[in-house]
Amino acid sequence: MTIFTADQIVAHLVGDYILQSHWMATEKVKRSIAASVHAICYTLPFLLITSSSAALAVICWSHFLVDRFRLARFVVWAKNGASGPITATGYPDEVPAWLSVWLLIIADNTIHVVINGLAIWSFQ
Fold this sequence. Notes:
This protein is about 65% helix and about 0% strand. It contains six helices and no strands. Helix 1 (about 5-20) runs antiparallel to helix 3 (about 30-45). The protein is globular and about 45 Å long. By secondary structure, it is mainly alpha-helical.
């Protein structure tokens, strides 16, 4: 059985980019209500690929936590040696802003895809 599939990637992309409004994107790290609405909208496409309530709960709850508290920045900070203060992106200030933002987005997406795949695989 494959853990990561194309339909999971598409569900992630639709939920995280197509169904996310500007309000959700700008407020989810500031307000739990925005992060909650985003996490619920994000989870909707996964209804097409799994009927597991447990998998859907993990997908929704983990998405809320990762986005609300911008947890990807801690992963980035740790993988870069956990030295210095934790910045908004987890990268040191000398990394160009455009690059650190894009690398954080990639790390965030990777974390979501891994959690989603493991949740669907674990609760099938």
